[in-house]
Amino acid sequence: MLNESLLEQAASKLHGITDLVAFTGAGVSAESGVPTFRGAEGVWKNFRAEEVATPEAFARDPKLVWEFYNDRRDLLADLQPNPAHDTLAELQRRFERFTLVTQNIDGLHALAGSRNLLELHGNLWRVRCTGCGQTWETVGEKLPAIPECESCGALLRPDVVWFGEALPEQVWNEAFTAVSQCEAILVVGTSAVVYPAAGLVEVARRHGAQVIEVNIEPTAASESADVCLHGRAGEVLPALLEALRTQGSG
Ligand code: OAD
Q: d(Cα 236, Cα 239) in Å, to the nearest integer?
């Protein structure tokens, strides 16, 4: 059961503002069938991040790392955005400025129609050459076990951020600017423990933004949240949009 009074509270904080940021994590895609990273069924329960998601792992055994990412690509190929992605795309149309900052690499926000999208950890469907640095979109494509660059023959890698790597500079700067300026931030489906991404919530709060969290359970971000909406993102976000519509017509 969604808590109506908390929904009202959250909607009233969003009502009338012009600049909103949504900050999302794996929980947003959970209802599409994408496994989250932490928790009982999490990806990091079955794989050790240092064996499949670090530059050292790739240097040591690119085949193993590609096996992991090719499996994830296979899994994602048939998945579709869920009502959480759809609602975030819809919210974008309701605010003068709306920036969607995501830690997800699954591409589902873009598929749902979200624009002004900042993918902090890269995108699973993009590959980057370790030699010449060129990138390619390979949405839905089946890749070889160890893909190589068509231009220079060097090894390709997924264009994602691995542990120990810096976030893409321009994307990070844009995200930092967005959270520094926004009037509210919606923090959805993230455990908020992976830095520097998680630090964006605190930056927003320090600059005076209202923090509204949507998650099935309390997280590291809950303490700095003004309103915590507990429930599945695919249910809470549409209900929040509805509450916002009602306030708008009231
Ligand atoms: P996590 O797996 O750490 O957290 C997922 C969050 O989603 C948890 O807080 C869950 O409670 C919540 N959740 C699960 N199902 C939900 C649902 N239906 N509705 C709402 N919330 C739900 O994933 P992230 O926070 O995204 O980085 O992880 C951050 C980063 O750690 C990832 O980008 C990835 C990972 O290691 C890299 O690979 C660099």
A: 5
Q: Is 102 in the pocket of ligand 1 (CB under 6 A)?
A: no
Maximum pairwise Cα distance, the chain: 62
The encoded tokens of residue 149 equal: 């660059």
pLDDT tens-digit readout, 6-33: 999 999 999 999 999 999 999 999 999 9
Residue 122 Cβ inside 6 Å of ligand 1? The answer reads no
Provide the annotated active-site residues: 121
Phi, psi angle pair for 241, to nearest 5°: -60, -40
Q: Report pTM.
A: 0.97
Ligand 1 center to residue 38 CA distance, Å? 7
Residues 6+ apart with CB under 8 A from 25: 36, 102, 103, 104, 188, 189, 190, 191, 192
Work out whether strand 97-102 and strand 117-119 pair parallel, antiparallel, or are unpaired. parallel
State whether the beta carbon of 99 lies less than 6 angstroms from ligand 1. no
